[in-house]
Every structure is written in C-alpha cells, then in structure tokens.
Amino acid sequence: MPEKKEKFYLTTPIYYTNGLPHIGHTYTTVVADVIRRYKRMRGYDVVMTTGTDEHGVNVERAAKKAGIPESEFVAKMADAWRALWDELGIPADEFIRTTDLKHVRTVQWLFKLCKENGYVYKGHYTGQYCIYDNAFVNDAKPGDNCPDCGRPLETVTEENYFFKLSSFQKPLLDFYKKNPGFIQPETRRNEIISFVEGGLKDLSITRTTIRWGIPVPGEEPHVFYVWFDALTAYLSAVGGPEYEKRGYWPADLHLVGKDIIRFHAVYWPAFLMAAMLPIPKQVWAHGWFLMDAAKMSKSKGNVVLPRPIVNMLGMDALRYFLLRDVVFGQDGNFSYDALVTRYNSDLANGLGNLASRTAALIEKNFAAKIPKPAALKPQDEALARETQAAIGEVLENFDKLSFARALETIWTVIAAADKYLTSEQPWALGNSEAEQSRKATVLWTTAELLRIVTALSFPVLPDSAAKVWTLLGQSVALGKFELDGLRWGQLAPGTALGKSQTLFPRVDKTEAIERIESMANEELNPPKAAPAPAASAPATTGASAAAAAAPAVSDKIGIEDFAKVEMRVGQIKTAERIVGADKLLKLTVDIGTEIRQICAGIAQYYEPESLIGRKVAVVVNLAPRKLRGVESNGMIVAASVGPEGRPVLTGFHEEVEVGARLK
Ligand SMILES: [Zn+2]
What we know:
alpha/beta; six-stranded parallel beta sheet; flat
C-alpha cells in the first residue's frame, strides 16, 4: 500500500486511423481499463492513455478517396474512436492524437535531443517505390509490382535522416539483462533478445516523399516517419518536454499486440536512451484473437465488432469473456458460441444467480436486512477460510496480469457458495429460535462471500459489481474501495439491502448468436438511405404509416399511392421483451392468412401481457427488416402523441374480423 499516492502510467497503442476499432483493439483497451481500475483500488494515482496515429501515406490515400482534406479526415476518425471508447465505458484519461500540437512539439524536441547527442545523421534510403501511390513498398525487390495498385515499382533513392540504432545493440542487451521484467511475456523477451543479438541496422526516421506528417524543423520537405512519430505519443500525452512536472514518466506499462513488440522493446528504448530520457518499466505483448485460426482483419471479412455484443449481452459480459477465456499474452480463439456459453454459465447462473438468490432469501427472512451470524459450524468456517485465501490469490494474479487465473479463483469461490447453499438449505429451515439463528448464520456467510467476490470482480465487471454492491447496502463507491483493506468479516449485520436490479438475464444461445451476427452485419453494411435501427424504432409505430410508401409526409398523394399500402386487422398472439433493446417488443400477430413476427417500439409504454389478444392495424406488405437483430415482418400502426412521441395503438370499437383490410 503506497504511502503517498504513487503514480502509475499505462498506455494502449496509438491506434491507426484508417479504420474503425474491432474486437482486437477493444481487447487491448479493455485490459488497460481493468488494470487502471485495479490499480486505483490498490491506492495508485493512475493515468491511462490511448489515442490515434494520424499520419502517413495510408491516411493521405483514405482522405483522398473520401474527397476531404487529411485534417478533416483524421478529426472524424479520432472522434469516432473516442466516441466508441466513451460508449463502451472505457474512456482514456489522456487521448492523444499525433496531430495534436503538443505531440508535434514533443517529436521535434526528441529529434533535437537525439541529434545533439550524435545519434542522428543524414543519409540515403533506397527502396522500391510506387509513383502512382507515392509510397515506398517495404520488403519489395526490384522488379516487383505494387501490392496496392499492381503497377511496376521503381527503385528510388531519397535523402533521409537516420537514427543510429546500431549503436544501441550493447546498451539494449545490458538493459534487458538488468531489467528482466521489461519485456513480457517470457517468449517475447527471448524473441527480442535474439533479434537484437543478431545485429541492428540504422533506422530511417524521416521521409521526403510523404507529405502528411510532422515536419522536421528547418529541413522541409522532411517529415517524420512512422515509429519516431507514433511511439513518442506516449510521452507527449503526459507532458512531453515538461514531463517531470506531471510526474507520470517513465510509463509503468505499455500494452501492445505481439506484432508491434519489436518497435516498443527495441526502437523506443533506443530513442529514449539516445535522448537520455527515462525508459518505460514494462512492455507487455498480448496475443491476437483468432477466428477460425486466422488473425482478424477487415480485409478477411472475419471482423468481430464490439457494439452488437454489448447491445445483446452488455459490456461486462464482453469484458469478462475477453479476460476469462484467454490467457493474457497468448493467442485466443474468438467464437460467439464460447462467449454466450460463458455468459450463461458464469454470469447468469453464477454471479447473477448467487446475488439474486441471496438477496431474495434475506428479504424474505430478515426484512431485507443483513442478519447477525450466530454460532459457526465447521462448514461456515471452511467457506470463510477459502474466501479469505482467495483475496490474496486474486490480488497476486491481478498484479501479474494473470486475469484468467484471477477470475477462475473468484468463480471457484462462487461455486463453493452455491454448493454451501444447496447443502445448508436455509429456505427449508423453520422458525424456531435455533433454526432462525442457523438461517441467519448461513445467509450472513453467503452475503459476506458475495461482498468479497463483488469487490474483487469490480475491475472486470464495473457495472454489474456496482449493482451487487448497492444491493448489499454498501455505501462507499466500489471504484474508490481499497482492496488492501478487504477482509472476511466486515459485513455489518443490520445493513439494509439496496435496490435489486436485473443482472444477467439468461439468453437462448442460438437466438443470441443470430442477433449479434445480424447486428454486426447491419453495422458493417449499413442499408443505404435507410434509418439506423435505433432511430427507426419510433417510426415503426408512427401514425404516418403510409409515409413508408409515400415520397414525403406532407405531399399529397393519389389514391393509387395509398392503395399500395396494405393494412389489415391483426390480433396479437404473443408479446415479449427483447434483451438488449429496451424500447422494442417482439410480437407475433395473426393477420388472418398467417402469423407474423413484428417488432414494435412500444416497450416503454405497453406491458407485454396487456397486449395479448388485442386487435391492431398492421401494415402487412412492408418489406421485412431487422431491428436490433430481430426480424420484423410488417408494422403495427400507432398514433404518436405528445412531445416524446408516446405510441398509442389503434383500436376498434366494434367487432372486426382478423385479416379484414383497412381502406
Ligand atoms: Zn501502387
């Protein structure tokens, strides 16, 4: 436990802005957020940085394709990335863009230091160049064709600044030896050491053929090239040249994908050594998420997006899966099947069920107040010991970034609680004094165990753990709770239970996967000119049903246009809520000739049960579409009332036959 708040600085990579985040980026950022929350609960003053890498020829090209200036293109991309992290509840403390002025200044300053210390010189770079794309193609041989446009490449020589990486072979090897924890995991460390032992070539760090980059002062048209620019962002984010004032540099932890470990573990410390600046304490390379054993990539079309999963199962479910199913550092296989299986078994049936069962028993038997335990039996003491021991184990594993192990330990305790309840059967105990006090002991023990596993799982499950915490009547905000003080026995009898909230509703696996895939498909291939699913929900029930087929609501239409809309009397057969879509109800409606499944945006105003048997007007010839991943084949007509557009279903004051046409 640090005396004065010790600082902890960690970073994700600065993501390249030629596309939008998929599950791989989300994984790194989630891990960073888990560490941030955990370190705060251990008393640290934490800063987490993420950001966007906005320079280079790929951005130049993408902006050209979009027909907008580069600055506008990257601003839009940076906004989109930042917005997604906000939406997912994982915003950075520092969001650095490589086009930020403070970053530009830092890169130029670092270059000046390296140059003053004699580690930078002007030389010539010769490579294979595509005149059409204005870019060198790394690793191409003379006579190759451009991988992007297929045109023949030309051998081009340009003037570059070089960084004397070759001078750092020995200093780096010495550094790795003195700081064995610098590169993690071990396999990556060995890989890097043998790479450096093999000899280091000087590194070209500027280009004159790229326009969109940070200028080398007084040396235009030189701009900085890729890594000298991108890596420096970690330092720019916490003060740049004035880093000492803020006190977060050197970074404690750079989280990176294994494909970029070399740049972080070789180039970056070498740049800093050359500038005589402090070197980060650790670089941790994690593996990739594979789908069908292939690295996920947009071009392969096997991209998994975070948003549909979050809509269906919640952010905590995604976080839990990412950290529980893969050993941090290794590659993991991503499958929706495994995701939903984990969700149902560990979250719905595990933590969720334990919390709701415990709360319900305390409500029923002890007027919703934590009971006072009486004489302990050996099985109560055994459970207490197991839980107390788990605290130390979990903290140790979090410290080592062994997230899967930490969660495994927590869930072993949850399983032990389930077993304990099943064998003690507090619900079967009667009202005699002895039985009442046994009941009190069993329920206090379970509630205390629940409190401890909740505090321990907060870094991974921030939303749901906070709900359980409130349910247990705990008043300190869980994010500010200090894990160092967590001990068995602290749950005060008499504490009133708080509000109970739905935690993890169980889902049908096949249906859940279908809906996640369908939402992902909607996001990857947005329908042209059709409204987004969320925005279209109110329109489903709008009074102007005919608007769907008419050019504009206000224009007058001929009777032949109106005749195109086929409306019939339908009778609602079933109605249910849709997990992950709190505005929508899924209805089955008898329209005389068949039963249709229709989604309607009325869930906030109509209880599903109240709708069964009700007759409504249905547009039956609307093309089927998907709303939040659920197929909707038709539209229920409703009036839109008041400023919020409250939907009011149509009705009939006389008997009407199901299937009758409205004219
Ligand atoms: Zn080309």
